[in-house]
From TrEMBL:
Protein family membership: Belongs to the Nudix hydrolase family. NudC subfamily.
Organismal lineage: Bacteria, Pseudomonadati, Pseudomonadota, Gammaproteobacteria, Pasteurellales
Gene3D superfamilies tied to this protein: 3.90.79.20, Nucleoside Triphosphate Pyrophosphohydrolase
Record function comment: mRNA decapping enzyme that specifically removes the nicotinamide adenine dinucleotide (NAD) cap from a subset of mRNAs by hydrolyzing the diphosphate linkage to produce nicotinamide mononucleotide (NMN) and 5' monophosphate mRNA. The NAD-cap is present at the 5'-end of some mRNAs and stabilizes RNA against 5'-processing. Has preference for mRNAs with a 5'-end purine. Catalyzes the hydrolysis of a broad range of dinucleotide pyrophosphates.
Residues reported to bind a divalent metal cation 1: A174, E194, E235
Gene name for this UniProt entry: nudC
Originating species: Haemophilus parainfluenzae HK2019
Name used for this protein in its record: NAD-capped RNA hydrolase NudC
UniProt KW Magnesium keyword: yes
Residues that, per the record, bind a divalent metal cation 3: E190, E194, E235
Amino acid sequence: MTALLKQKEKNMKAIQPEDQGYWLFTKGSMIYWQENDLPFGSAKELGLTTQKAMLLGKWKSQPLWLVAENEQDEREYLSLRSLLSLLTEDFHLLSRGVEINHFLKTHQFCGKCGQKAEQTHDELAVQCTSCSYRTYPVICPSIIVAVRRGTEILLANHKRHYTPGKAGIYTTLAGFVEVGETFEDAVRREVFEETGIRIKNIRYFGSQPWAFPNSQMVGFLADYDSGDIQLQETELHDAQWFSSAAPLPELPPTGTIALKLINATLELCKAE
């Protein structure tokens, strides 16, 4: 770890004219992406000395500053989703910035007594100015799972991906983990709720920060156990078993853990 990363700040501070590097501006789950990169230069050159920022890490070996989100900013922003093809560590760093700004924007007041909350200086958190209640960035754990049956894979067309006349993306099943639930229990429940299918041999695959706005996608592989597809129609437009030897429908974009799960399952199908 570099000396710069060891010293990275935990809170937003007034930007100094001599501060220099790359600058990350966010608006919700979107970022300002200029000429296929983040803007670079000194704070004075870019007119940022009236704003606040925190040192997030390094971008192309230069300091990366996260600028406090400003809803009045009229720059043209780009969805973070469109940058999934970036190197994994770069995408995760941008995701971290998006999630930090989301946390700060949505926790300006105490969730316990309603009074003003301010950033702490010793860690990434906000603390109430009245009752001292401290809140940390909220991360919502979600499971995502690819299910295999012999040489077939279960793929679903979610309602958000469907438009009349065009099926759209077919992908894996996913959902939020509920209170008091293990990740494995959440996998079983979500698959059964959405498709009526029971699964077995659940095993961890990997994870992905998902700043839309503050999820952590925890991926699993699983095998079919029993049952026939019965759609949860409030969530899914369609779900089918697809042969690994036949052409597949449109799949999620490169860079998503969903596509990684699908590809891993197709490899298992080939070896069957």
